[in-house]
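Archive transcription. Copying these from loose printouts into the bound notebook so they stop getting lost. Printout 1 of 2:
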Amino acid sequence: MALPPALQPFVDEPAGSAFFADFDGSLSPIVRDPDAATVLPAARAALARLVPRLRSVAVVSGRPAAFLFDALALDGVTYVGAYGLEQIVDGEVVVDERVQPWVGAIARAADEADDALPGLLVERKGSVAVTIHWRTRPERGPEALAWAEETAARLRLEGPLRGRMAVELRPPVPVDKGTTVAALARGAAAAAFAGDDVGDIPAFVALHGLARDGVLAHGVSIGVTSPESPPEISEADVVVDGPTGLAAVLASLADALSARG
């Protein structure tokens, strides 16, 4: 695959370039059981080649940071979970201290979800979030969404974050992939983010804003499309077809950097 022109600045100035990616639907195909998700071998291999050549490489996901750390098992990658509420630092999970007052409410929401939504997967993301999945029972999506709306309001949690056949309850802490990617991009000349879902759009917006304001010389959005991705994903600077398409772009960037010497 030819290198997309939008990524040429990363080849021209690798020491000032940062590459960030989502996990589910981007580095890993979407699967029925979230616990069974695995990174595409081709994507992992390409990331391993990029780590020593770029300023920084990070995975920014709604998944727990520990899951990402285990799933990729690559040294030199920054692992950021729960949209930025968790990060692996020196091999340990560090949680944003602003989450602490809401730990009890998150645990209560998870317990109530188990009771109120039998048959649906209730994913407890450590102490920072709980996600309800209905991929195996798509007809129950409206029920799960209604429950999440009521529970978030009652427990004073952030408004439910919708994903692919899932909804998440989180603390009302002003962190999303946009704020997280903006912080990770600090000091870089060029930065790119690859994502596939609504939760990734803030990262696209953040990078474009930093480029517009002159903070970044180049801010690049990479949309990883699928039949379930929102329309905004197809409006990214670079558009690829699913995780295999992203893996090909990562490989082409790694090849171009290798050829540069």
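Printout 2 of 2:
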Amino acid sequence: MRTVASRVLPPGVKRGLKRLVRAYHQRFFAFTPADLQRALLQLGVLPGDVLMVHSAFDRFLGFHGGPVDVIRALQQVVGPDGTLMMPTIPFQGSAIEYALGEPVFDARQTVSRMGLITEVFRRAPGVVRSVHPTHSVAVWGSKADAIIAGHELADTPCGRLTPYAKLLDYDAKILLAGVPASTMTFCYFVAEELESRLPVPVLTQERYPMRWKDRDGTVRVSHLRLFSPRLDHDLHPLLSELKRRDQWRERALGRMRLMLVRARDVYDAAAALADRGLFVRERTS
């Protein structure tokens, strides 16, 4: 209905409707940065945690603040000894389609397509961004430099040389704020790790030349295997397994769902599913 309305209503009417919807949520589903902090602590985010965050700011309906306030709340919860991570992938859709456009990745300038919060975060003071042409991450906190180190050397998007692997090393937690489980980029690391046990190739055999700028601005080329277009990315079996193991924590805040899980639990559940042929499958169409 919203899509139909956006096509047929005059711009002035649409603006008025948006204001009404915003006012409705601000009155009946309001929450503040302090409420967000309390909800995160109740979910199990602790000071000192390494926390990977996937988010959609347009789902923060009723929130009294902007993306900067979300980021500050997250930073305050993990504290100065903690670490905050967000994916800053520069495309939506297929990595292969993106590669065929012959982009040049620049960690300082290339925009994140993972939502408004991630783009504001990557520009924030004290945040560093890994250098990788398809699957970069932005990181703030005590382990930031260690987490992004060497990402430019990886010849796959999410494998052992990437920050996604370090989610295991640091016993990280993964927060989904207004987004579905399918946004967990860590699952691509798991798929790479388990590829030999899966019924379908996770990565292409072909290598794609991907250009990126180093810290000095020199354009370099990496030849990467990318994720196969044959992959079925349905994570419902994984979500069900995590819930069955009581390893999936969830709560409402305003009209948004917050979900938290440990990276180690995701890996173990996925490995168990892989042994039963249920983790990654081939597309049927």
